[in-house]
Amino acid sequence: MAPIELPRRQEKPLALDDRARDNLRFIRETMERAGAFTAVPGWGGVAIGITAIGAATIASRQSSPSSWLLAWMGEAAVAVAIAIWTTLSKARRAGTSLLSGPGRRFVYSFAPPLFAGALLTLVLSQAGLVRAIPGTWLLLYGTGVATGGAFSIRVVPLMGLCFMVLGAVALFCPFGWGNALLATGFGGLHIAFGAVIARKYGG
Fold this sequence. Notes:
There is one protein chain. This protein is an all-alpha fold. The protein has a domain at 66-200. The protein is 73% helix and 0% strand. It contains 7 helices and no strands. Helix 2 runs antiparallel to helix 3 (65-94), helix 5 (133-149) packs antiparallel against helix 6 and helix 6 (155-170) packs antiparallel against helix 7 (178-200). The relative contact order is 0.15.
């Protein structure tokens, strides 16, 4: 006697719009993983460079290491404000987010060297080693730009490498050269690379 086949339970087919949404979500997530963070602000970099040259001029007129450091701390606050505002503005225009995909990876790679630089600034200033601060700033900022730039457009890690080279040189230079080297890095490099980014990558 032949076995009796029971009718198979039919699975409920996915609706066409659900399947399309799943496919679009997969494509979007794949593109985010493979894409580059393009919201690096070119004109923001130019603006930061200009304020850095002004800060170097002000810092060169200070008579004590503490007032010198205060002048550059003021510049750091201005630079952070410019960077945040211009990055958010460019990301909004491009329809991208800093909290997902390449933007999140860029921030996670860029932030730790800056945090290390802030801690070392405190330690070096308390130890009376202010002469080491310009090189430390340039080297660690360059490290952050280079590592974050791995998830961004090609010119960004190149800019980070230039900062690192300049920082390495600054570590072995007299403190009297500090303002000129900081102006060259945070001023000149930001202006030069910012102009390239603004021209080739949409502002």
